[in-house]
Amino acid sequence: MPPRKPDPSRRLPRRAHLNPRRQPLQQRSRAKVEAILAATIELFAETDLDDLTTADIAKRARIPIGSLYHYFPSKEGVLAELVARTTNRIDSAFAERLARDFERLPWREAIERATDAAVHAYESDATFIAVWRAARFTPLFRDVAAASDVRFAELLSALPMAKSVRPFAIRSAIRLANAFLDWILETPDPRERARITREMKQAVIAYLAPEFEGRED
Known about the structure:
The protein is an all-alpha fold. The chain has helices spanning 27-44, 54-61, 65-71, 75-102, 107-124, 126-135, 139-157, 167-185, 190-212.
């Protein structure tokens, strides 16, 4: 069996692997991007991350490899887009639910309900879990996660109920919750995941309590 040709995207600087080269504006372009992402999801269920190449993705998506590089500089860029889509979707739903529940429920209950919904969404997304398990310790994945945390913190800080909460406290609460979420996603036993989720909510609420109860800086 002939050796694989080296993936040219591997020569790119680390951060250049992640940044999309251009956003698809026309319907035809968006369809190509969706085909690339769908092909990657299929292949990721069949192939180890180290063995997956942009050539494989382009072949499965039935597009020229040049078309893939038109939108993504590397396979890592494709995976980053998959992760970003999931985190953005769940983070936005979390913020919307939190804002809605804050209007009619005590703040602790609102956070608990939003957290339960977010954890369930992550647990139910098999593609995200597969990418997370394969790439979470890589610098590339950490860059994507960090960018997501910044965006999520800005989203929460803009909510009316967060006016009394320090921005740094929001960022810290997100980091705390992420540590528990990692634990949840790496745990196969549903009962143990539920137990960790309870501890997660208790920890986040205990940390934020002084913020909502009027602690002065």
